[in-house]
Amino acid sequence: xxxxxxxxxxxxxxxxxxxxxxxxxxxxxxxxxxxxxxxxxxxxxxxxxxxxxxxxxxxxxxxxxxxxxxxxxxxxxxxxxxxxxxxxxxxxxxxxxxxxxxxxxxxxxxxxxxxxxxxxxxxxxxxxxxxxxxxxxxxxxx
Length: 142
Fold this sequence. Notes:
four-stranded mixed sheet
């Protein structure tokens, strides 16, 4: 079974990648470990795409953006736009906290869309498993 929540990213430069990618990878590992149930009727994946601004590419507006549902791909996806001011010069713990808050907001929007599409079959399990993963992420050493 595929992981029901996955994070991918588009980085604005190598510095943005160096700053945010450790959080990106850690979160995907925790989702893979903790989200193992069957939560949806036909949806295969909830996808969060980090759009991390840097010196080459700039993304806006800050926060969750472009919520999309693809019946063909059986996926609901959303962008999380992270401006340069949120990671440049920030400590790794500050970046992790910012990313965690952004992912939580995105998750809420993804779940709301899945509900609208009448796709959720195990909301309690989904919410509990997500909370376990995000709590582990927040409590881990940066």
